[in-house]
Amino acid sequence: MKLLEERILKEGVVINNDILKVDSFINHQIDVDLIKEFADEVKLHFKDKQVDKILTIETSGIPMAFAVAEKFSNVPLVFAKKSKSATVDDNVYKTEIKSFTRNLVSVVTVAKPYLKKNEHILIIDDFLAEGNAAMGLIDLCEQAGSVVVGFADVIEKEFQGGKNRIREKGIDVFSGAVIKAFENNKPIF
Ligand code: 5GP
């Protein structure tokens, strides 16, 4: 997405050639038109797939997942919840996800009634870095016996390897923008 790349170059702030801050249009203030355009691209990419439900992780995946759910005829959107405690309700699927931006591991859960056997799930997130969030969400789907039909993220940092981990599971990945590297804190597409 050309517009997204231009926006990243104009307003993104790179920290330590590692983390991209995009608070002015994705992670704090949200550019609704840009997110809707991302959702259009996701719909186009996965147009031949059956999608029964959208899955994301709180908090920053929710706006883009909502926009994508609308494009797939308003299918339900489920967001996995993060908790620091291992003592969670029994009627949940749970997994552990290491945060890329913070030094902590969260227990992440989805209540069992919201992920069903044989349901076709499209997973959405804001960023794809090492793929830990994606692998955790895939794990929750596997526990439920649901089928992951694809993964889409707004911004992928390709050099951090997440895409390969998802593809090794035979899952198709779409990214709105693919950053190949950061050089002197500048994104290279
Ligand atoms: P992963 O689990 O793929 O390593 O990292 C993806 C998750 O970490 C996303 O849910 C996202 O919230 C966060 N994340 C990873 N890298 C970045 C980044 O460069 N900028 C921001 N804002 N979030 C990131």
Question: What do these coordinates show?
Answer:
With 189 residues, this protein is an alpha/beta fold. It has six helices and eleven strands. The chain has helices spanning 2-11, 23-27, 32-45, 62-71, 132-144, 162-167, and strands at residues 13-15, 19-21, 53-57, 77-83, 92-98, 105-111, 120-128, 147-157, 173-179, 181-183, 186-188. The chain has a seven-stranded mixed sheet. A two-stranded antiparallel ribbon has the order 1-2. A two-stranded antiparallel ribbon has the order 10-11. Helix 3 crosses helix 4 (62-71). Guanosine-5'-monophosphate binds at residues 19-21, 27, 60, 100-101, 125-134, 162. Residues 19-21, 27, 60, 100-101, 125-134, 162 line the site of guanosine-5'-monophosphate.
Secondary structure topology:
Blueprint (H helix, E strand, L loop, with lengths): L1 H10 L1 E3 L3 E3 L1 H5 L4 H14 L7 E5 L4 H10 L5 E7 L8 E7 L6 E7 L8 E9 L3 H13 L2 E11 L4 H6 L5 E7 L1 E3 L2 E3 L1
The structure holds guanosine-5'-monophosphate.
Guanosine-5'-monophosphate (5GP) binds next to strand 2, strand 7 and helix 5.
Summarize this structure as a short list of keywords or feature phrases:
binds guanosine-5'-monophosphate; alpha/beta; seven-stranded mixed sheet; 189 residues; single chain; globular; 6 helices; two-stranded antiparallel ribbon
